[in-house]
Design goal:
about 325 residues; 5-stranded parallel β-sheet
Length: about 325
């Protein structure tokens, strides 16, 4: 049995040719689900040993999916966030779950800076009006566009992305402080409420967990200075859509740049799609060519390590990183 090729199930939404191109170099038997629904997922998991998870969360590895996979030995998320996986269920089954931490750090951090510049200068706002045939020169000046230099930036979440974002904002002359669940040895730390009260621009880049869900609710966002800007590259559930809309409509927020939402995609008639002070992005802050190459390379290398009996890297659930067959 140990000489048999590993059964590798790719749930990420790649077509068959791309799956073979990316993972055909591995000594594994490649599979994709016949149907991209819950039944198709559970059917495909029945024989799966190694799984490349679905970064869109359409085929989530929840507790029922783990139970449907008796041979499951390793799950690789081709991305950083693992909130579409039931970490506890995988841990209880002894299945290591890995992400590709660091692969898109620069990409996402640069997006936060670009988004803050856009909001601060009203670039997208002006573009919409120009395309509609307007010439809003005086109106653009009256809206109060400003430079980023000297603005107070608060970063919620000081992991790799938060630290890189801090360096970028400091480089353009911003003063930067942060709040994180784990206090760092460098940087200006503030308790969360104090950070909100002193942030002209709030950057959200921490993982979605049961502890962070709803962290930035309407009451918390109301602590921001009037006319603050919000940039969210984390998960929508941390700063819920309704809370952001309330802050925008009250004038507490002058603008928001959102790469993530409560539900993705948001409905076609979602109020955020119609709000004039919002810059929208389809969860693509990390989708540069370099970041995507980094992510795929890290995922393939980790699956290769699992097949060869070497420890996998970036395990997020404290399970032994040496992957063992369960047949």
């Amino acid at each position: 049995m140990s000489d048999m090729p590993w059964h590798l199930l790719v749930l990420a939404p790649f077509d068959d040719d791309r799956v073979r191109h990316l993972f055909g170099v591995l000594d594994a038997e490649l599979h994709v689900p016949a149907d991209r629904d819950r039944r198709g997922l559970h059917t495909a998991l029945a024989e799966a040993e190694l799984v490349v998870a679905d970064f869109t969360a359409t085929l989530a590895i929840d507790a029922a999916a783990v139970a449907a996979a008796p041979h499951l030995a390793f799950v690789q998320m081709p991305g950083v966030g693992v909130d579409s996986c039931d970490v506890d269920a995988l841990s209880a089954a002894g299945v290591p779950l890995a992400n590709t931490a660091g692969a898109n750090t620069r990409s996402v951090a640069e997006w936060t800076l670009a988004a803050a510049l856009d909001l601060s200068r009203g670039i997208t706002w002006a573009d919409r009006r120009m395309r509609a045939g307007e010439w809003p020169q005086l109106e653009a000046a009256a809206r109060g566009a400003d430079e980023l230099s000297q603005r107070r930036v608060g970063i919620v979440g000081m992991g790799a992305i938060g630290r890189e974002a801090a360096r970028l904002f400091e480089a353009v002359g911003c003063s930067v402080a942060y709040w994180s669940r784990r206090r760092r040895t460098t940087g200006v730390f503030k308790e969360l409420d104090a950070l909100l009260a002193t942030s002209d621009i709030l950057i959200v880049c921490l993982p979605l967990t049961p502890q962070t869900r709803g962290l930035l609710d309407a009451q918390r966002l109301a602590l921001l200075p009037d006319g603050a800007l919000l940039v969210n590259v984390a998960r929508g559930g941390i700063a819920p859509d309704d809370a952001i809309l309330e802050a925008l409509n009250s004038g507490k927020l002058a603008g928001a740049a959102l790469d993530v939402f409560d539900q993705e995609p948001p409905s076609a008639d979602h109020a955020l799609r119609r709000h004039d002070a919002v810059v929208l992005s389809p969860h693509a802050a990390g989708a540069t060519r370099r970041a995507q190459l980094n992510i795929i390379t890290a995922a393939v290398d980790n699956v290769k390590a699992a097949i060869e009996g070497r420890p996998v890297t970036n395990v997020v659930n404290d399970v032994d990183p040496v992957v063992r067959r369960r047949r």
